[in-house]
User: Fold this.
Amino acid sequence: MGITKENIHQLINLQGHDLVLDKLQSGIDRIPKEIAVLRQGLDGAKAKLAEAKAAVLTWEKKKKAKELEFASKDEAIRKHSMELNQVKTNAAFKALQHEIEQARVAGGAIETEILECMEGIDAGRVEEKTAAAELKDSEADAQVHIGALEKELVELQGKFSEQKAVREAAASQIPAEMLRLYDHARGRGKADVVVPADGGNCSACRINLAPQMIVELAKAKSLVVCESCQRILYKPEPAVKPEPAAKPV
Ligand SMILES: [Zn+2]
Assistant:
């Protein structure tokens, strides 16, 4: 394919535009992931609050059960106390007294447990309140960050569209066959598909170039493609100032 030095400069220029697009695209790809991480971060605070709520509920259930248990002991004491008036023998009286005493001891122990439950509920409610406040803070924080990221995403998308138009305008100046080779090489995932020769080597894959290729590079009248890495090669010419590669992002 016959080309000119100007075509090579156009291609280098196009690659500059594409590198800017790549950078913008990586930002566009990165932001939704960052937003997802921020949202996931809130899950920890939510779990902590749910845990605190569950702990309070557990203490409350236990307290209720203990209260029922206490009531049954109380009822036993009341019942046995009435029976005391009806027993005929001393042994039966003493047995009832013993039962009453045992119920009182058990009732006392249950009361202690009820107090523990109440302390548990109080402590749990403090934790719940703290966790709720922390979640609220985290949510406010995340909202600010997510808002900033979403704004950045819109800006990047706007810049991408502008840059894409600049790129397409630059691409339209390049001979179709040359552009096809370039796009094909880029489509295979290489960011730098137009690279300078470095003396007798490809500057990207470092392979030695055949003498004929070096001659062709010097002539710059045909497209020279590295046989090893398939990149388009050119001979660097510091004397020729290329067009500015691309707008800074
Ligand atoms: Zn190469």
Q: What stands out?
A: The chain has two domains: 5-10+173-234, 20-171. The chain is about 75% helix and 5% strand. The chain has a mean pLDDT of 92.
